[in-house]
Design brief:
Chain lengths: 238, 413
Amino acid sequence: MITLRNIAKEYHDGDVSTQALRDITFSISPGEFVSIMGPSGSGKSTLLHLLSFLDRPTSGEYSFFGKTITDLTDAQLARVRNEEMGFIFQSFNLLSNSTVYRNVELPLLYSGDIHPEHRARKVEEAVASVGLSEKLLTPAGKLSGGQKQRVAIARALVNNPTVIFADEPTGNLDSVSGAQVMEILKKLNDKGHTVILVTHETYTANFGNRLLRIKDGLLESDTPIEKSVADDTHAYFK
Amino acid sequence: MTTRDALTSAIASLRQSRTRSILTMLGIVIGIASVILLMSLGQSAQQLILAQVQNTGSNLVFIIPGATKGSRLSSPPSVQGIIIKTLVKQDLDSLQNEPSIQAAAPEVRGVAKVVFENNDTSVTFTGTTADFFPMRNFTIDRGYSFTQADVDSLSHVAVLGSEISKTLFGYRDPIGKTIRLKDITFRVVGVLGSKGLGPFGVDQDNIIIVPITVAQKQMLGIDHYNTLTIQAKDTYTVDFVVSRITSVLRQNHRITDPDKDDFTVRTQADALELLGSITSIMTLFLTSIAFISLIVGGIGIMNIMLVSVIERTREIGLRKAVGATNADILKQFLWESIVLTFVGGMAGIAIGACIVILLYFIFINIIDGWAFALPVSSIALAVGVSTVTGVIFGIYPAQQAAKKNPIEALRYE
């Protein structure tokens, strides 16, 4: 269970302070697909950073499956990110000169001493799950946008995380590639992974089963997405 | 992140920017090659100088007039040009009667003009006895060395060094010819074999050797000696001979307080020790200069690594997002600079060794007795220093990388 209670985040730039998030309270159960929407500057990316342990709140309580952020050191936060979280970014964030294999392997490098054969098997399985087995030894820079994002998904999956964080995953993709990516995320959610998606596109958000709307740093609404809407969106992309 | 993974990642990153890596390494390559080259040349020079000392005879003891002040290896006043008349014939006679002494040869020295026909030049002459030649390992190339009878009878005979022979006679045979040395006529009876430079760079081929009696009485007008060269029966008895010499000379000179000695006794070991310390200082000095280039190379690596950290900001952000700790990032960038300097060091050793070998083949034709030296210590030092350079100059960029905030790093354009 992910639980946030009265979370606030304030940034300081000299004497000027900016309240990015205020009094955010909600919970996410395991296996949910939560979409977070809001206009630019609303605080949705800040919220994602807090949820994914990349940043700490200024005040409030945040518990991630029993682990309270305030109790953990930076190194412990990094360990949680490595073992229980997967990340998908709008701009893919791949090492373009490295092969698909090396990119997907990256989180495993920080997972302790895994036997090389076991590591190779995990990478191959993750790459196969996004349909790019034949590209295993291709430099990531030579792939199309859609393929790059699928590599990023494989990288997010390779450690079998509890939660996958996706920050505008279709933002740099054409509609077909975007649909493929969302299909994969939907399948991952169906397999039990919790997915937290930040987007400004309604049809992408509709892949989820719950929608959080953020505005001016406040949680404006927290509503379920009707199954019929999600199914329609799903069918539309198909 | 395991060390193996950090090392693999570092090598992969460096291979991806191969040209830059090679150019970055250049400073270290040059620095290490310089260290290898200068340490090797220093050692070769040291071996050459020590061989020259040993070539004068390892069981020789030298007695110089005047006491040594300060350290044991400092020069007595007579070496610095002050005339001291304390070593005389009575000392020589006493020492020749010592059973532990094989032979003793007195020496006086001067500088004079030598003339043969229209050729003239300034030359160092040595007055000595017949024992001098075998004691100092001088060989006779042509003719013969003068005898004790020549010394006793004040014969005007001279033995020429190989260089002065060439200067005066060119390719003509000097044996039997007459030269004028300090306006005294001498008959050339022998020419020495080439001997090269002696200890402290003394040219042993540009000398004229004459009977000491002639040099003392007719050329210099003195009755003391500049040096007494004593030959011990073998190398193992040198220390005993030194103590006997000291005892005999103190008795002759009526010295009861050792602090008031008016002579200095030097052995080959003293000379080797002195020269060894001089050449070691020389090598240290040269190596220090080479280290400056290593520091410059290290700073070059630091600069490039700092640029690399900035260029790879997003990569650092990504690595942190997927679980890298600050220590993991530090380790990876540190390994990159260590690999750079280590590989650069290896290349530097190879290049330095090639230059040392090349110079060896050039120098053996120019300098007699030049020896090949590629000390293992220089290689070990080079490997150690290059790796330490990598750590020292890599740590700052690696810290900069490790400190990056993951969110800001991921947003970096």
